[in-house]
Amino acid sequence: MTEIGYxxxxxxxxxxxxxxxxxxxVKQSFQTIPECIDAVDNGAIDIGVVPLENAIxxxxxxxxxxxxxxxxxxxxxxxxxxxQQHLLVRKDxxxxxxxxxxxxxxxxxxxxxxxxxxQNLPHASTVFSTSTxxxxxxxxxxxxxxxxxxxxxxxxEYGLQIYKANIHDYPNNHTRFLVLxxxxxxxxxxxxxHLERTSLLIGLxxxxxxxxxxxxSAFSWRxxxxxxxxSRPTKTGLGNYFFIIDVDQPYDNVLFPGVKAxxxxxxxxxxxxxxxxxxxxxx
Length: 283
Known about the structure:
Blueprint: E1 3-7, H1 13-22, E2 26-30, H2 33-41, E3 47-54, E4 58-59, H3 61-69, E5 75-82, E6 86-90, E7 102-105, H4 107-112, H5 114-120, E8 125-128, H6 132-140, E9 146-150, H7 152-157, E10 160-164, E11 174-181, E12 195-203, H8 211-220, E13 226-233, E14 241-247, H9 255-265, E15 269-280
Parallel strand pairs: 1-2, 1-3, 5-15, 7-8, 7-9
Antiparallel strand pairs: 3-4, 3-11, 5-11, 6-9, 6-10, 12-14, 12-15, 13-14
């Protein structure tokens, strides 16, 4: 049976995405994103699911940097899920908000609830954890008046109550998750894909005026729709960057080879990171 790894422990949004997309497949949690990616690379698991980008907080940089600089795995699918953050406490907690001394969660989750925390819990300390699931686990094991920010799955898994629901600052909060595997045929997501997307990595030969304009022009005159453009440091020195570009169409044998040839003629290095279906999930 196919084994799927995810950023754990149980109760994380990644686990929620995996459960929604894959159903009853065997699942294994990992404490960090690199551990999950490494497990796919060395064959310990078949498929890995890791967070890529949140609509409010932006790119999960450790995911991008690890896939670019450490382990190159093909992206074979993307899962998009709505994010609903709740304030979770032990079921025996019957105090007021002002009684809560600490709020635990992943740094992205805390940032997504900044206004709620600022207005309602200015006295409470924020404590970062490796995931929202880990934060819920910590709260479940403590007797002190502390809380976690997490989802309904975390509340159920760790026996917590939702003290305040939907405390995220913006309602249209979604996260993109990448599905990574060396064998595309193993991925069986029983949902209808929203669209097809292709991701490219483009390295510049040097920092020269007009370089980004030339790159974008190669897509523009071919009428290829770009949904994301992001620059990341090459880690070879200050001012050295590469671009990650998402194109909302599947790879073909005409437009993409044309773009690749045009950019390589400019001295750019072009790598196809993956062409894959995108699934929008309702949870």
